[in-house]
Amino acid sequence: MGSKGGSQPQQPSGFTTTTQTSQPWSEQAPFLKQAMQQASNLFTGYTPQYFPQSTVAPQNQTQMLGQGLGTAYGLMGDPSVNAASGSLAFNNAGGFLDPNNPRLGRQGLKNACSQFWMERD
């Protein structure tokens, strides 16, 4: 590719030249300077003011009732767990083996033993 006149190379046909610049448009420059100045002022001298009241919505009556019931249930314990714990403690203490235990009584123990022996036969 030769050059004509020695200063500019000749462009082949069908090609275009694109020029990029990092400078803003001249019409944009004053607005960008103002925006950057305001950003600088906010960064160096602004103290945020926080909302003074609560930012959490208050609970309605149904929510408060549910929370109260859940707390009461947790404090008193699960009735089925309490019953199972009582039975386990009774059993571990040998309560079902004692014929004089008022929980069973003599007849209850006799019935339990009779049932056991009847099933084995």
Summary keywords:
4 helices, mainly alpha, 3% strand, 121 residues
Can you give a write-up of this model?
52% of the residues lie in helices and 3% in strands. The protein contains 4 helices and 2 strands, in the order ββαααα. Strands 1-2 form a two-stranded antiparallel sheet. The chain starts with a strand and ends with a helix.
Number of strands: 2
How many strands, what sense, and barrel or not for the largest sheet?
A: 2 strands, antiparallel
The succession of helices and strands, N to C, reads: EEHHHH
The strand line-up of the biggest sheet is 1-2
SS-based structural class?
mainly alpha
Question: Residue ranges: pLDDT <50 for 5 or more in a row?
Answer: none
Principal-axis shape equals elongated
Radius of gyration: 45 Å
What is the subunit arrangement here?
Answer: single chain
* Total count of helical runs of at least 4 residues: 4
Strand content: under 5%
Global mean pLDDT: 77
In whole angstroms, how far apart are the ends? 116 Å
